[in-house]
What does this fold into?
Amino acid sequence: MKNDIFSNLNSKQLQAVMYTGQNVLILAGAGSGKTRVIVYRIAWLLSQGININNILAVTFTNKAAKEMKDRLEKILCIPINLMWVGTFHNLAHKLLRIHWKEAELNKNFQIIDTNDQIKLIKSICHDYTIDINLWPIQQFKNFININKSNGVRSNEFIPTNYNEEILLKIYKQYEIVCNCNNFVDFNELLLRICELFKKNLNIKQLCREKFQYIFVDEFQDTNKIQYTLIKELLGDNSNLTIVGDDDQSIYGWRGANPGNMLRLSHDYPNIHTIRLEQNYRSTFNIISAANTVINNNTTRLGKKLWTEKDKGELITIYTASSELDEAQYIIEKIQFWIKSGKKLKDLAILYRSNAQSRIIEEQLLRSEIPYKIYGGLRFFERAEIKDVLAYIRLIANNNDDISFERIINIPTRGIGEVTLKALKNIAKQNKCSLWQATKITLINQELSKRILQILQKFVDLINECINRINILNLSSLISYIIDITNLREYYTKFDRQSRIENIDEIIIAAEQYSLFVQTSNNLSLLQEFLSHISLESEDASDHCNNENYVTLMSMHAAKGLEFSIVFLCGMEEGLFPHIKSIINFESLEEERRLFYVGITRAMDKLYMLYSKKRLVYGHKNERQPSRFLSEIPLNLIFNDNKNDIQKLDHNDMKLCSTKNYHFYLGQKVVHPYFGEGIINKFEGEGEYFSVTVNFRKFGKKSILPKYLSNK
DNA sequence: ACCTGAAATATTTTT
DNA sequence: TATTTCAGGT
It folds into this structure.
């Protein structure tokens, strides 16, 4: 570490970095060097002789954690993989893996994701004959999650009406089922560890001694249980550094409470507050827009960004005629900026909801602009991936009923509803898992010969896999499972090539994972791999082998990042602010904060787009511009109307028809082997006629039209 | 038990 | 529109 690394900090930042008191709260506006302060403060502590093992840094997203690690590594020039940097869930998980016994968990507990959770609740509702039409599953899920994130167990909740009685009944049963099956959901990770700290003072003391210096980034996003967790970790001699920005609190819907920042000053009166208000990221115009907009919120701690930068460009607002026009305008501008010397990496396209990415993606593909989409349909949430994982989970933990149910008939082996019901009954009678129920059935010979044979084969298959856990390495084991189960053939039936590719990607993911992680034995590696997948759903759908690409992501996902040029699209009433957030004032203010986050991602140039018409559930809708747009002062805006009138859908799409085929440029087509793609070019004539297609997974290929079908 | 096509349904953000 | 569930036929 160089001695002069601190010389490029401003006085406020320096104050925060070198603060010597016990606790410090850094109120840091967007672009004021938040992460930078954390990273430098850690570096400074190390330079003061603090041991790296005594530092804990908590973030909210995996991306933020990775970013912090990278930056630390860069300025410290030492490997920091031993340091505790990670998300809250990550921290809780690591601790629970160490102290599983004391936390009253089974050694190989499984983390379940939201989809599993919903499935579980669904099956419980089914058992209690609850009418799903009257009681949407979502309601139960929210009830359970909100309570857990408030630290409230089912036996602590006191219902005040019939509605709550029903909700509670399911919550209670959900807890029982999770315990029986060895399941731990996301909130459970945090709740468990808090409870562990409360009842086991030894472990708490151990952790307090280890984590003497605690950093929490994005503190405005903490919920009650996370707040409690931090509080539990703080001993008399602990040092706490909190960084946050109440104006960027955008996770209220999952229980985040920006009030925690105020509460902190109340709970720790000696905490010193430092405000970072100088923005280094954006031009004056962008900062002005952001300040004016956020000023319309009533609940704020109060903070005003300023910058020394020039006015810069005006904010361009473009009124599109359709979502296609919107996408094409973006393409046009991207091409313009590339010609003017910008890199694709300087550009980001941000939206309110992930569904908006589809049409933009198609146009990017068509224009051969490399891009990377973050979020959305996560790799490990895809059905075929979950099928494979279910096999792995069942092998690691025979009593995993969710996985059992998922794959007992995948590939179809003749086990239907009736047999499954019979197995469930036996499991109920014997208070055991479906796997054990199957074995009991086989001993008692209770079902028809044919079914028994199928079940025997299934049990043998799983046992074969179990036997190989210690013989094969992780990726070979997974590959073995895929082979022995015939999953590849099964998915071929759905003529979706992408599914098979995805399956093969798990093998690669496992291979890479085992390179990085060392464990005592194969089973624990397997379990760690499964946990890793649940907690860090990295996007493997990387359509781009290029280092340089345009970034597409939701505004939520973009928090903490910055780009030279930013496109905010779909700035329409109902979409942003989202229709579900308009109803009440708190959620509307949260939408405005999200809008503020979106604006402040841009360093140099900001585009905002909305469309006068948009396809909503298959119907063309007239749209109104977002109310937030009108909150931006007019003198900061340039209205780009040049294409407004003459531009029509498909305006520049050349058609190409022969007597057998009918294609247009930009058309979405499917190839039996290469999967989905976009028509890029036509070549030749008559029998030599061919079509160049840019495939999502395989890039550009020249294809005979007879192999292409419409999506 | 499985397949098929029709009908219903749901559309936010993430660990 | 895209996905999931449902009902009825094989």
